[in-house]
Amino acid sequence: MKILSVSTATNHLSVALNDGQQIIVEKNERDERNHSEHLDPLIDEILKDNDLSLKDIDRFAVAIGPGSYTGLRIGITTVKMFASILDKEVVGISALQALAKGVQEDALVITGLDARNDNYFAAGYLSGAVPENVIPDGHYNIDVLIKAIQDYAVKHEVKKIVFVGSGLEKQDEKFKALNIPYIYGTEEENVIHAGLIGQLAENAVPVDPDKLLPRYLRRTQAEVDWHKKTGKPFEPDSHYVEEV
Fold first, then answer.
1. Whether CATH 3.30.420.40 fits 2-95+192-213
2. In the chain, is it the N or the C terminus that has fewer CB atoms within a 10 Å radius of its CB?
């Protein structure tokens, strides 16, 4: 199965071509924020280098969040368009699960993306070929995240923790208080890789392209402003967009 995977969830852009679990090629651009300009050329380059066209792709996969609101929309809109026009399968993968998959250590993997002001998009996973989610993907204040880690660690006698993602090192003093051996991810482990998304996507359940939505895990400022203006309760993403 040929799988084309994309991550635009962070300032790291990643595109990959997989043949099942085999990563044929992965191309990355680090510390760039103009994904809207670079995504299509990267896809085109990968396809041309492998003598393929979009029609040859069996399944599309994308990181659906959490992450940058604008970035997520770019990647998700792109693969939804491809899947819909070509009548192909599409799969959404948690950006935090994709981070966890890059860790080879036998440990509790805490994946986190810096959301500023001591807040993180974070989760806990058990490392493995398909990382098992044991602390739900969410938007956490660091103290709430620490409590969730403590609760899980005590109940399951965690022996080691690996922290991967962005901005976690600045919480080092709080992590020391856990009294559990831990390490931080390497430079490669701390970014989301499209090839790993492709591996997770091979056995994931496809969805209708129209139902593939970002998982922001917190309200956008536009939604908050809309709620204040209208007084109406928050609605699912699709309802909100129609109201605007």
1. yes
2. C
Q: What is the DSSP string of 89-117?
A: EEEEEEHHHHHHHT--SSSEEEEEEE-ST
97, 135 Cβ separation under 8 angstroms? no
Render pLDDT for 37-88 as a digit per residue (tens, 0 to 9).
Answer: 999 999 999 999 999 999 999 999 999 999 999 999 999 999 999 999 999 9
150-175: b (≥16 Cβ within 10 Å) or e: eeebeeeebeebbbbbbbbeebeeeb
3-state SS of the chain: helix, strand, coil percent to 5?
40, 30, 35
Q: Cβ(79)–Cβ(25) under 8 Å?
A: no
Q: What is the pLDDT of residues 117-131, one digit of tens each?
A: 999 999 999 999 999
Q: Which of 103, 157, 115, 102 lies closest to 9, judged by CA?
A: 115
Nearest residue to 14 (alpha-carbon basis) of 31, 215, 54, 1: 31
Q: Where in the chain is the domain with CATH 3.30.420.40?
A: 2-95+192-213
| 78 burial via Cβ count (<10 Å: 0-12, 13-18, 19+) | buried
State how far the Cα of 125 lies from the Cα of 113, in Å rounded to an integer.
14
The CATH code for residues 103-184 is 3.30.420.200
Are 13 and 43 in contact by the 8 Å Cβ rule? The answer is no
